[in-house]
Amino acid sequence: MFGQLTDKLEQTFKKLRGLGVLTEKNIKDSMREVRQALLEADVNYKVAKRFVASVQEKSIGARVLKSIDPGQQVIKIVHDELVELLGGSAEPIAPADKGPTVYMICGLQGSGKTTLVGKLALQNKRKNRKALMVAADIYRPAAVKQLKVLADSIRVEHYYLEGKKPPEICAEAVKYAEKNFIDLVILDTAGRLHIDDELMVELEEIKKRVNPHEILLVADAMTGQDAVNVAREFHERLGLTGVALSKLDGDARGGAALSIREVTGCPIKLASVGEKLSDLEAFHPDRMASRILGMGDIVSLVEKAEETIDLENAARMQEKLLKSKFDFEDFLEQMGHLKKMGPLDSLVGMIPGMGKAFKNIQVDEKQMERMVAIIKSMTLEERRNPTIIDGSRKKRIARGSGNSVQAVNQLLKQFHAMQKMFGNISKMKFKGFPAGVNPFKL
Ligand SMILES: Nc1nc2c(ncn2[C@@H]2O[C@H](COP(=O)(O)OP(=O)(O)O)[C@@H](O)[C@H]2O)c(=O)[nH]1
Ligand SMILES: [Mg+2]
Predict the structure, then answer these.
(1) What's the number of domains the chain is made of?
(2) Digit-coded pLDDT (tens) for 149-163
(3) Ligand 1 site, residue 275, Cβ cutoff 6 A
(4) Which residue of 4, 39, 274, 311 has the smallest Cβ count within 10 Å?
(5) Torsion-angle region of residue 403: left (phi > 0), alpha (psi -120 to 50) or beta?
(6) Which residue, of 283, 315, 344, is where some domain finishes?
């Protein structure tokens, strides 16, 4: 996520940190770099200009320049300003507690609407609530089918009326939900490649007929500025209640995420971070700011783990990771969970300092399986205490798992590096922040 932007900002901050004393000129130079990085990430130029001006003004104050660690103070100001830019505090979506709650999902074609409908339905199902996935994108037969397949895969009810127009389908779906005690109705509306009036009229009609609790726009985070313009137009016509950023897992440049709130005034409520239905997070401006600044997002990681693994297990894992006391036994167990949690590289990006370390290592499923095979060829003693693995043990493990000694060595090396890195998390917690400020609020 935001790899390039994060890299650029890290470079700038590294320079700042290195300076014991800051002058106005140092700050202005850094702010020029920050502005450039934002523009390259396709952040709206007005937003970038305002952002930098505000950080600069706050940084040049005598209090910052004269403080013990001015570089870190400036970084803290950038962090806080980013949090503001992203909306300040998290705004949750309307809970599905008095049924039926209606979410209307809209956006351009391919932005990730149908996927989000599935994700929301699954999230709701995990809370033991009943959802109804409504096919209101009727112009492409494949779209109705896609929603049905998705609904079936998570065993959620699907609603469609052949031969009817979307506003009527949606209105009937809500009536059906009322009768059948369904908690949440999610409308998968049609998109187009570009905004057109016909589409907007239809969406306005749906809004009028069902009066949704949430009208959420799905904005593709890979598209930068375009997503912002789309959001503005949808907001003008429909009065959005929130934005769901999608595809934040990919090469999202940051432009959409950083500009959309400021330009439209619409809160970002959800973050879609992968193709799998479990890849949905509530949007937290402070966590996103930390991620953008390369400080990782340990809280989201832990929350994600909690959703998949049970709470007790997650707490145990967190503790072990932080104390770097976990061994290959734990590693094996966590591998199983990690598989359920989604792509490894998206997870490691959330851990402070890990995104960078793993940048050039593709941790794919195959590799994971090989790691598991190697660990399984170890004796319990070896798993608990990997330091005893000497040359002859390595040979045996390699043979047993059908791998080379090199592969075993590599795993041991990676494991060791990981242990060290996890150990660093506890020390890194406040890195880059003045004393008493905990960006991760653990
Ligand atoms: N990587 C990634 N892909 C996504 C995400 N959300 C949706 N997609 C993919 O984007 C494509 C379009 O999604 P879809 O939900 O069909 O878009 P729609 O046309 O707006 O309904 C599909 O291939 C999805 O798997 C996401 O958060 N991350
Ligand atoms: Mg669709």
Answers:
(1) 3
(2) 999 999 999 999 999
(3) yes
(4) 311
(5) beta
(6) 283
